[in-house]
Inverse folding.
């Protein structure tokens, strides 16, 4: 079977629609856009952020797979580079084994088009895509997951790890029952909140404030230029990029500017989502710290102001994925717990061009806002 991979053209719309229908009938819930031009990410004079779509077609012109590239400017170890985020590599091999080889062909094609590629998310190392990345020599890292419990009762009822414990061994069921009966977690959360209050009072201080805003402006560019050198791998976060990622027309994004003595020291983008029968978060009201930028030493202010804001929205749980080790310490010092992560950052071997020995992942800045993570919350 001859498979050719090329850009998605306008005339491909009908066969993409047929591909999506076959995948849906086969039980696959992912689907390609049936529009050959990305309306969300389009290159402009001021912003290089844009998306291209590629399709794998058989000799009859029927689509059997494809992938997206989302191009974005990065600073890697002090050097500017345009990186391609590979998104939704999808093959009909998922539902028909005769097309199994297409998955490998898609990755090979992507590597021929770009040397610097990353993938983000992917659900865990047990899934086919990260396994394939590992086989071809990519570097794979787990982006740490942090959570802050606001309402203990809701957490015990709906958080995935707790629900799994209730369904597993008898000893774990007894443990959860004991914790619930004697309100142990409620007491622990009470003391965490006292700790958070004291931490804010003595480590953050009364001179730190925050204010909501709609659009990113000049303060964003100033923060970017002053702080980008702190991170080994970081996507460009100037006002043009950020207004594309988090437009003012989308009300689901909550944005805060964090000020110390009246000067802006950072910003944060958050989500507040009422989950419904979610496989990870059940029916929790979930607060997510999606994206932020500041110096690592000022990150404690971002954490404190974010949690305060999300508490006012009455969330049950605050979560975030953050790759930077220094920033992770501020999560834990505030009262966040570190949980099991399934959020993988995979990068092609070409990234070694930027580093002498090994990739410096611990000093990177990778969050849910990188890749396509926020769309799933």
């Amino acid at each position: 079977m001859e498979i050719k991979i090329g850009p998605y053209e306008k005339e491909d719309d009908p066969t993409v629609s047929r591909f999506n229908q076959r995948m849906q009938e086969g039980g696959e819930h992912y689907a390609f856009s049936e529009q050959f031009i990305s309306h969300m990410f389009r290159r402009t004079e001021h912003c290089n952020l844009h998306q291209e779509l590629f399709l794998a077609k058989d000799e009859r012109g029927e689509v059997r797979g494809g992938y997206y590239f989302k191009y974005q400017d990065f600073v890697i170890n002090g050097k500017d580079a345009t990186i391609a985020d590979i998104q939704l590599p999808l093959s009909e091999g998922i539902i028909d084994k005769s097309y199994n080889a297409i998955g490998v062909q898609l990755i090979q094609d992507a590597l021929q088009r770009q040397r610097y590629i990353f993938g983000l998310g992917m659900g865990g190392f047990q899934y086919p895509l990260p396994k394939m990345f590992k086989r071809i020599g990519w570097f794979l890292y787990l982006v740490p997951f942090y959570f802050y419990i606001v309402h203990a009762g809701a957490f015990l009822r709906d958080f995935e790890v707790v629900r799994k414990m209730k369904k597993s061994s008898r000893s774990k069921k007894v443990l959860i029952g004991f914790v619930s009966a004697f309100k142990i977690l409620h007491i622990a959360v009470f003391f965490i909140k006292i700790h958070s209050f004291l931490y804010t009072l003595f480590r953050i201080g009364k001179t730190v404030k925050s204010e909501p805003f709609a659009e990113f402006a000049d303060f964003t560019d100033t923060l970017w230029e002053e702080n980008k050198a702190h991170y080994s791998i970081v996507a460009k976060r100037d006002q043009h990029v950020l207004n594309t990622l988090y437009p003012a027309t989308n009300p689901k994004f909550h944005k805060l500017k964090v000020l110390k003595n009246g000067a802006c020291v950072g910003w944060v983008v958050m989500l507040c989502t009422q989950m419904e029968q979610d496989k990870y978060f059940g029916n929790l009201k979930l607060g997510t710290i999606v994206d932020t930028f500041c110096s690592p030493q000022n990150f404690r202010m971002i954490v404190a102001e974010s949690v305060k804001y999300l508490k006012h929205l009455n969330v049950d749980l605050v979560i975030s994925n953050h790759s930077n080790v220094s920033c992770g310490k501020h999560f834990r010092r505030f009262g966040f717990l570190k949980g099991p992560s399934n959020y993988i950052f995979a990068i092609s071997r070409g990234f070694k061009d930027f580093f002498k020995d090994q990739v410096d992942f611990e000093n990177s800045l990778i969050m849910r806002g990188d890749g396509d993570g926020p769309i799933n919350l």
Q: What stands out?
A: The two ends are 39 Å apart (CA to CA). The chain is about 30% helix and 25% strand. The chain has a mean pLDDT of 89. The CA atoms of residues 100 and 108 lie 14 Å apart.
